[in-house]
Amino acid sequence: MDKRVAFRRALAWLLVKMLVATACALGQSPDDQSSQPAPMPEGPHQHMHHGAMPPGSLIDEIVQHSLSGTSIEPSSTPADMLMTTKGTWGLMLHGVAFLNAIQQNGPRGADKVFSTNWIMGMAQRSLGPGSLTLRAMLSLEPATVSERRYPELFQQGETAFGRPLVDGQHPHDFFMELATLYDLKLGEHGLLSFYLAPVGDPAMGPTAYPHRASASEDPTAPLGHHLQDSTHVAWEVVTVGATYKQVRLEASGFHGREPNEGRWNIDTGEIDSWSARLTANPAANWSAQYSIASLTSPEALHPQEDIQRMTASLSYNRPLQNGNWATTLVWGHNRIRGRGQVANGYLAESTLRFSKHNFVWGRVENVDRSSELLLDGNPEPPAFEETFLARVQAYTAGYDREFMLLPRLATALGGEVTFYGKPALLTPLYGSHPLGIVAFLRVRAAGQRH
Predict the structure, then answer these.
(1) Cα 406 to Cα 199: distance, rounded to the nearest angstrom
(2) pTM of this prediction?
(3) Is the pLDDT of residue 13 over 80?
(4) Which of 5, 135, 335, 424 is deepest in the core (most CB within 10 A)?
(5) How far apart (Å, rounded) are the C-alpha atoms in residues 204 and 290?
(6) What is the 3-state secondary structure (H, E, C) of 227-284?
(7) Cβ contacts of residue 198 below 8 Å, gap of 6+?
(8) CA-based end-to-end distance of the chain
(9) Is residue 75 a contact partner of residue 60, using CB atoms and an 8 Å limit?
(10) 81-137 pLDDT, tens per residue?
């Protein structure tokens, strides 16, 4: 067996065991002291929060590592998680699962019951002059999203059964992230960070939509996913980051091919792509990033085409009495090298939590779509060349109400409706007024607000 494959499998097994051990430690009986929320162990993480760096600083946000990859949000953004300590290790577990029933109208509308979900476990401790973090994130979507897709009008990206995926969203891989992180404080205001992951999230784009506070209650993917944050599941990721006060610069190398249709394994490939991201958190409630990437052969159906991607985003979070308000603006841009084909996607989304247990949210998108829409999921004909077709809009609004029915789990019932705008040339395919409605049950780990 190839040594690299053997090492990857061993690391995957170790991190999955760590996730299970974390879940077991957090799930002990209430009589056990370790089952109660506890602070992280004394070390760089705690020192940075209570020592030289004031709460709300960028460095304080980075070393918490509660999101995927090395992405960050405004420092004031809350996150529900279960936390405890085990010896010198601080343990954290959080995640969410949606059970969805979707109905769509029009000639291409479809109905389906499916689940979108993920769970993340993290272990953190001091090591030498810095702090070590081990993290594993898994998803059961390969089993809970049947036929390799769930319906979503006007969505594009990746493949299902060797055909371009149109009007549907693919499931995530079972292994969404297996990563080791190390942070080393440099002086009073500096931080040097390293990230190694056989499967993980390179320094590219905003925080991926499953982890954004502004999208926390929306169970479906944005239409601009493959223009903005689709690299959040990538292979052979190596990232180095340097932070000074409220500014951070990162660079990543990774394998650029998007995940294949085998969602239960860990894909392999050489490091052939790169990205760079500049992030600034000028205040506790604000975060902005600009990133650029060169993706080598990302699309399985067009292996000869490389893509240059650029993104920019601005996030605002405002804690409220008995609630929170999170908003994100995102721009994503793909350019196919060699023939200059470009596509842009614009997104604005916001989620308001009020009276403790009520959520309302909205999402507005304006996204370029390609000629693959015309294929309606059929195989690409010989010599097919993907070109710009149209720009479509999506307007989503939703509400859910949270109930504490189970210990350590916040359960919510809710729904959302999405209206679509499109040019007249797409009316024969989608009807005059396409829309989609989703009703769902949501379950989220509910412990300490971090």
Answers:
(1) 32
(2) 0.88
(3) no
(4) 135
(5) 8
(6) HHCHHHCEEEEEEEEEEECCEEEEEEEEECCCCCCCCCCCCCCCCCEEEEEEEECCCC
(7) 8, 11, 12, 178, 235, 236, 237, 266
(8) 42
(9) yes
(10) 899 999 999 999 999 999 999 999 999 999 999 999 999 999 999 999 999 999 999
Segment 340-350, tens digit of pLDDT: 899 999 999 99
Query: How many structural domains comprise the chain?
Result: 1
336-366 as b/e: b if 16+ CB within 10 A: beeeebebbbbbebbbbbeeeebbebbbebb
Residue matched to tokens 């290790």 = 89
Quick one: pLDDT at residue 43? Answer: 37
pLDDT tens for 319-360 read 999 999 999 999 999 999 988 899 999 999 999 999 999 999
Write out the residue range of the structural domain in which residue 335 sits: 3-449
**How many other CB atoms are found less than 10 A from the CB of residue 322?**
10
For the residues of 291-305, what is the DSSP string, one character each? EEEEESS--TT-TT-
For residue 9, the SS3 value is: helix
pLDDT at residue 42 in the model: 39
Q: What are the residues whose beta carbons fall under 8 Å from the beta carbon of 61, sequence distance 6 or more?
A: 72, 73, 74, 75, 281
- Separation CA 359–CA 305 (nearest Å): 42
Instruction: Find the length of the chain.
Output: 450
Measured CA to CA, the distance from residue 385 to residue 420 in angstroms comes to 26
Bridge partners of 315, per DSSP, are 287, 328
Q: What is the CATH number of the domain that holds 419?
A: 2.40.160.10
The amino acid that residue 369 corresponds to is: R
What would the two tokens of residue 28 be?
């002990």
In order, the DSSP letters of 36-102 are S--PPPTTHHHHHHHSSSPTT-HHHHHHH--SSTT----TT---EEEEEEETTEEEEEEEEEEEEEE
